[in-house]
Amino acid sequence: MAKAYYNNLSFDSEWEKDYYLHLMNDLKINENNIWRNIKPFTDLMARKRYTPDMIYYNKAEKKFYIVEIKGNYNPFANHFQDDMIHKEMKAKTQDELRHYVIENGIETYFDDTFQYIKIKYLKAHGWVDYDWKNPNTRVSQQKVKISNLEAELKEYKNKVKDYERFMKYLYKPNKKLTKQQLHWKQNFEAVWRLKNGC
Fold first, then answer.
1. Exposure on the CB side of residue 90, measured as CA atoms within 13 A
2. Taking the model in full, what pTM does it have?
3. Which of 3, 30, 73, 93 lies in disulfide reach of 120, CB 3.0 to 4.6 Å?
C-alpha cells in the first residue's frame, strides 16, 4: 500500500494514518504519547523479525498499547502467519512487554501496565479488536439462541425427576401434550436443528 502523509509525518499506509488520527481525535491521546518508529521483536517463532505499527500511552489508564493495524480487513484471506504472530504476541508477559517498551527508549513507571492489541477496520463498525465478533451475524445470533434454549432446557431438566423417561414420553406417537410439554419439545428440537444446521 502507498505511503500516506499528515502534518509532515510519513505513514506506511492510509490505514496507519487514519488510526493515528483516531487516537488523537477520538481517544484524545497526546501526539507525544504515540511512537511509530519502533524496533522489531526478534524472538517470535512465527517470524524472525516482527515490528508492530506503533506504541501509544493512555495516560488515564496508565497503560501502554503495542498496536498492530489491519486496515481494510478481508475475513476470507489467508491470515495463517498473521494469526500465529498474534497468538504469540498475546501470550507475552507484562515483563516482556515492559522490556520491549523500554528498549524503544520510552520511559515507564512501576504502576504502568502493557497490552498488545491488533486492530481491524470494518466499514460498518469502524476500528475494532481483531478478535471481536459481530453479534449481529447469523452465526452469532444462532449461538446466543442455542445458549438461551439450552439454559431453559437445563432449568427444566432439574425440575423433572426422570428426564430420560420424560423425553420418551414426549415422543410417544399420538400422545396429547399439554401446552408446557409442547413448549419443551419444540425447544429441544430447536436446539437440535440449530446445532445440526437444519
1. 12
2. 0.67
3. 73
Phi-psi region of 116 (alpha: psi -120 to 50; beta: other; left: phi over 0): beta
Q: What is the DSSP string of 91-156?
A: T--HHHHHHHHHHTT----TT-EEEEEEEEEETTTEEEETT---TTSHHHHHHHHHHHHHHHHHHH
Within 10 A of 20 (CB to CB), how many other CB atoms are there? 23
Catalogue the E-assigned strands of 73-181.
113-122, 126-129
Per-residue pLDDT, 82? 86
Burial letters for 40-49: b for 16+ Cβ neighbours within 10 Å, e otherwise? ebeebeeeee
pLDDT digits (tens, 9 = 90+) for 124-133: 778 888 888 7
The single-letter code of the amino acid at 165 is R
Neighbours of 151 (CB within 10 A): 10
